[in-house]
Design a protein that fits this description.
The protein is an alpha/beta fold. The chain is built from twelve helices and ten strands. The strands form two sheets. It has a six-stranded mixed β-sheet with strand order 1-2-3-5-7-10, sandwiched between helices. It binds coenzyme A.
């Protein structure tokens, strides 16, 4: 695995943990983080030993405190647009063929929340705080926040978060449906890895197709989504994993999925 400057990638069995490693800047998403994150995901995509990716932030204060605001001063409208039209971490996570979990260990703001929203599952600590504070800088979301947050929690709640820029706490985030689970900070890592290990045991091709199918729900109309779901479902019948899963059930044993 390549060594990076702004992120740390660590493989723990079948789980890869990507840590945004700029704790002195509360792990703000610089262009370097985007570039390295995209490159790391490309390596992990091809690595058959890795079945689940977990994103987190270094230190105990922040997951990610947003886009790197210092970089905003260098941009014109045209250069900022080009920056976000390049492969960003948001798009790479969204289209990554394996499950991606955001392990949110503190401030989860702006682009940090947008990265978490691009992930498949969000698990946070009790001290986590969430917001889309762009309005306070005179800008709006650019990493998918207005789209993914609205689809996840509905227009009224998304509108409130984007219009006020206020932070919500972990309990509110759980109630809104921004996060799936909340744990005390000291248990966050253990519980998240336990959850990731559960996903790592499942059939990888079916896992990829599940992700694709769920994402179709917000990208297509119901008829098209239902039609495509049948195609993806039928595709599973061509896998060795499907045969193994069915055989294991009938033989009353645990399946051993190979991702084929
Ligand atoms: N971009 C660049 N640098 C950031 C940053 C960001 N999004 N968020 C924090 N930092 C930097 C601070 O500038 C500071 O750097 P310095 O020590 O060199 O001055 C360092 O991280 C620590 O942050 P600080 O503000 O001193 O911590 P705090 O505990 O007082 O406040 C926050 C924490 C999260 C409330 C505050 O940092 C903040 O509001 N950050 C910006 C959040 C934001 O608007 N993000 C959306 C961007 S679109």
């Amino acid at each position: 695995m390549t060594e990076f400057e702004n992120i740390k990638v660590e493989k723990r069995g079948r789980i890869a943990v990507i840590t945004i490693n700029r704790p002195d800047k509360l792990n703000a998403l610089s262009s370097g983080v985007h570039r390295e994150g995209v490159a790391a995901l490309e390596e992990l995509r091809k690595d058959d030993d890795v079945r689940v990716v977990v994103f987190t932030g270094a230190g105990e204060k922040a997951f990610i405190a947003g886009a790197d605001i210092a970089e905003f001063t260098e941009h014109t409208a045209v250069s900022q647009r080009a920056e976000f039209q390049r492969p960003t971490l948001f798009n790479s996570v969204d289209s990554f063929p394996k499950p991606v979990i955001a392990m949110i260990n503190g401030f989860c703001l702006g682009g940090g929340n947008e990265l978490a929203l691009a992930c498949d599952i969000r698990i946070c600590s009790e001290n986590a705080k969430f917001s889309q504070p762009e309005i306070n800088l005179g800008i709006i979301c650019g990493g998918g926040g207005s789209q993914r947050l609205t689809r996840l929690i509905g227009e009224g709640r998304a509108m409130e978060m984007l219009m006020t820029g206020d932070m919500i706490d972990a309990e509110t985030a759980l109630r809104f449906g921004v996060v799936n689970r909340v744990y005390p900070l000291e248990n966050l890592e253990e519980e998240t890895i336990k959850f990731a290990e559960k996903l790592a045991e499942k059939a990888p091709v079916a896992m990829q197709l599940s992700k694709e199918a769920v994402k179709l729900a917000s990208k297509s109309n119901l008829d098209e989504g239902l039609r495509r779901e049948i195609d993806l479902f039928a595709l599973c019948f061509s896998t060795e994993d499907m045969k193994e899963g069915v055989r294991a059930f009938l033989e009353k044993r645990k399946p051993d999925f190979k991702g084929k």
